Amino acid sequence: MSRWGVMSLTFALSILLCACSGAGQAKSYDIPSDVCGISVKPELLSPLLVAGDVLEERKSAEGGEYWKCRLLVDSKLSLVAEGGMLGGFRDPMEETAVAKRREEDVVRVRIGGEEAVLWASGAAVTFPCETSLFGSFVGVRLTTGDTEGEQKERRAHVKAFAEDFVAELKNHHQCAS
């Protein structure tokens, strides 16, 4: 094959790979201003959601001691937010099974001034909430479906969203802390 033929084939394969990888796809849906009934800043949520056409929220548990909802884009999992009332402090490190399965580094941090752990596709936080009807602490875990890209950058996006989500969750439950 001539040099021009090889270059043409390489160029064609490059275009095909870019088209198949989803590079350049946009989010054709509106970014919500709440997740699981908790107000959030869409600009902090947006980096955690994948490109696609249709965003859907599915709640599998709501109210009471435990809640969980999923954001799906074109029927693919994009974000899971779940939490519950706890009778006492629970080490957020106990909520890192997803990170271990994905072989992502887990680091201890503070989110909203509270004990937390953070990994590239999620975070777990435990905070006191004395006004809670069901317990004296709240545990929260956020997990994204996206595992593409630089871990450090993804971790920064997850932390920014988690800071906002935890602050709003504290307000929602009227926690004293």
UniProtKB/TrEMBL annotation:
<feature type="signal peptide">
    <location>
        <begin position="1"/>
        <end position="26"/>
    </location>
</feature>
<protein>
    <recommendedName>
        <fullName>DUF3558 domain-containing protein</fullName>
    </recommendedName>
</protein>
<keyword id="KW-0732">Signal</keyword>
